[in-house]
Amino acid sequence: MNWLELSESLNTQLAKQDLPPIHILSTHAISGGDSHTAYQLHTTAQNYFLKLAPLHQLPILEAEQHNLNALLQSNTLSCPTPYATGTYQDHAWLLMEFILLTPSGNETQRGKDLALMHHQINRKPQPFGWFEDNFIGLTAQQNTWSSDWVHFYGQHRLLPQLELSQLKGAPSTLYQSGRKLINALPFWFQDYQPEASLLHGDLWAGNSAFNSEGEPIFFDPACYYGDRETDLAMTELFHGFSPDFYQGYHEIFPIDSGYQQRKPLYQLYHQLNHFNLFGGTYLQQAEQSIQQLLQQTKHSFF
Ligand code: ADP
Fold first, then answer.
1. For 88, which DSSP code?
2. Deepest of 180, 260, 272, 275, by most Cβ within 10 A of its Cβ?
3. Ligand 1: which residue has its CA nearest to atom 14?
């Protein structure tokens, strides 16, 4: 990597936003990302976090910048400030604030912060969706505005993942049973009408940590307005959040008693996405979830 040339590209974009140029002193590769390579940039002024991706992934980094800005503007939780995106040769880049992250900190506050963000509710006539399509990992995520959550979750979340699974080699039975499940979705919403909360959208433990003061930091979001239970379900899918986190959440925004029934429905989206991205045993997990969910509806007319 020619860092001098790359910093010229960074500075051209920073100047467009009236931000001061940076002068890189040294760089340090950071591991842990799923999709991108990342670096800590030590500069004469401050430290920056730089994400690099293949050129065609520029829209993913641009969406991440928009999502981080949305979290910041909600004034409810902390995340890195994004400064600029751009391209350099065959790379796309995203430059943001560097935060020294640690795995432990104030778990109760992390739950409270998420609950505060979920209190940001979109009350427009078509509240579910987002102003642009974005990405969950590397998978495109449709965010077409909708007035109906059940329609949105079926048509813009489960269905595209089921369709993609067919291109990725999943058996057609997965698609067929998944379609059945989409038709049955109203079963889980007979006594529950979710509001359109601002969501992180990709909230597994790898996308949240704490700063050196132990304050919660959230990053790598895939925002949209939707049922807040989707974020909670994802925190439980791969674990990593302690009982204090849920206690803190509950203090600010109690959870509906039907959440336990809907949880596998919301985890299914991420299981399908993980199969589509990584293959492997996620397929069996998704198949099992669909069968168990359909089993719940057996005695209903759906
Ligand atoms: P990817 O999009 O490739 O999954 P992430 O956004 O999850 O990448 O970042 C990869 C790793 O870099 C994270 O696990 C985290 O430890 C660290 N990280 C993310 N954002 C920052 C930041 N702004 N400052 C410092 N470290 C960060």
1. E
2. 272
3. 32
Q: What is the pLDDT of residues 33-86, one digit of tens each?
A: 777 899 999 999 999 999 999 999 999 999 999 999 999 999 999 999 999 999
Note whether 87 and 117 are same-domain residues.
no
Helix (H, G, I), strand (E, B) or coil at 132: coil
Domain around 67: 3-97
Q: Are residues 295 and 174 in the same domain?
A: yes
151 and 77 in one domain? Answer: no
Confidence label for 93 from pLDDT (cuts 50, 70 and 90)? very high
- CA dist., res. 248 & res. 44, Å (int): 39
126 and 179 share one domain: yes
User: How far, in Å, CA of 179 to CA of 167, rounded?
Assistant: 16
Question: What pLDDT, in 10s, does the model give residues 202-253?
Answer: 999 999 999 999 999 999 999 999 999 999 999 999 988 999 999 999 999 9
Pocket test residue of 65, 219, 238, 277 for ligand 1, highest count of atoms within 8 A of CB = 219
Q: How many domains does the chain have?
A: 2
Q: Which of 113, 191, 202, 220 is catalytic?
A: 202
Cβ neighbours of residue 15 under 8 Å, at least 6 residues apart? 21
Alpha-carbon span 164 to 143, nearest angstrom: 16
Same domain, 83 and 138: no
Q: Which two tokens stand for residue 35?
A: 């999709």
